[in-house]
Amino acid sequence: MVSQWHGGLQPLYPGLHIAPDLRPQLLLAAAALGIAAGIVGALFLRGASMARGRFAQVPGGPVARLALGGALVGVLAMGVPEVVGNGFSTIQTILQEQPLTVTVGLVLLAKLAATVISMGSGAVGGVFTPSLFVGAALGQLLALAMQAVVPGAPASPVLPLVGMSAFLAATSQAPLMSVLMVFEMTLAPALLLPAMIGAVAAYYTASRCQTLSLYSVIAERLQASAAEEHARAMTLAGLCDPTDTTLAPDASLSAAADKFAEAGTRYLYLVEPDGRLLGALSIHALQRAQREDSAAGVLTLAQRDFPALTPESRLRDALEIFATHGINRIPLVRDGASRELIGTVSKQRVLQEASCLF
Predict the structure, then answer these.
(1) Are strands 329-333 and 341-346 parallel, antiparallel or unpaired?
(2) What is the maximum span of the chain, computed from C-alpha positions, in angstroms?
């Protein structure tokens, strides 16, 4: 309101002359356009969801996904330049019935594909104006088809504007907001009734086809991003489990065998009385020593450089050790200097917490 008081009441899309028109063919066209927008909107949201799943499988993380998404959109832009940007200028071209570089049907398909790819790759950008773009192109496509077969059919810019309201209602699941937004952009009262018919038809059609909205898709993406950031910053302190799979460094081989049978584990950690971790004894090393009737002690058989982490270590540190050493648990020491054993971190828990990173 402050901006309107300061600069005057001006529509976002100026130069449109929309006369009152309550002919049945216009109202029926608005309803048909709403149904079509509802179907296309539902397919659009499902496509965006599928694209996110596909891009999530791309190796290399966000950088690789964004690079691939940008490359695909760039290829589309080489053939259909209208897909670049938020679509404001193209909407203006459609409403003014000026020529496009390609047919309006091809522009519609290309913009849908480009927006789905951008959303799927995680690119930061708006989806509100592209929704208006798609609705305007869909309405113009219907207007051209009706003019070819129906004498006196509604012409531009009525149906493109109704399409904008209808497609926005289908994707946002907010028909009243969609009608008011398009009205505010045009300041054309004659548009209200057909826009309401199209928006309501699109809303009910889309709600029968799917339950997501444009904003729930965005919210899911933000939640996934937040979970990923949380996993990247998470330390192992909250994943530490107490352990009793310890053995004194002066224990006999028979005592070690009894401890393995009791604990049912692959490794026993050799710990001094003050809690200092000296290494880990594997059950395979013990069994080999028993077969050979070796006189070596458990400290001699132990792996002294057994990997260990601290509570401040991150999930990626644990993942690297699990991938390199093929173990199921990593001992956690208080710090690198004292190497006091405080527990272990399991592979299963680390993978659960780090699942959003893949």
Answers:
(1) antiparallel
(2) 103
Domain extent at residue 71: 22-232
- 3-class secondary structure, 267: strand
Same domain membership, residue 79 and residue 38: yes
**Partners of 340 in beta bridges:** 276
CA nearest neighbour of 3 among 197, 184, 137, 189: 184
Tokens (6 digits) for 252: 């006999």
Please write down the HEC assignment for all residues of 271-338: ECCCCEEEEEEEHHHHHHHHHCCCCCCHHHHCECCCCCECCCCEHHHHHHHHHHHCCCEEEEECCCCC
Task: Provide the pLDDT for residue 187.
Answer: 86
Residue 44 has pLDDT above 80, yes or no: yes
Residue 5 lies in a domain: no
Q: Which pTM was predicted?
A: 0.60
The pair of three-digit structure tokens given for residue 84, joined into one six-digit string: 């670049």
Strand partners, 331: 344
pLDDT digits (tens, 9 = 90+) for 202-248: 999 988 886 566 655 556 666 667 777 777 888 999 899 999 999 99
Torsion angle of the four alpha carbons 120, 121, 126, 132, in this order, in degrees rounded to the nearest 10: -40
In a domain, 216, yes or no: yes
Compute the C-alpha angle 281/285/291, nearest 5°. Answer: 140
**89: Cβ–Cβ under 8 A, 6 or more apart, which residues?**
none
Q: Pairing mode, if any, of strands 246-247 and 267-271? A: parallel
Pair 162, 178: CB distance under 8 Å:
no
Domain boundary pick from 215, 232, 249: 232
Phi-psi region of 326 (alpha: psi -120 to 50; beta: other; left: phi over 0): left
Q: Under a CB-based contact definition with an 8 Å cutoff, are residues 93 and 100 in contact?
A: yes
Same domain, 174 and 121: yes
Nearest to 211 by CA among 246, 183, 170: 170
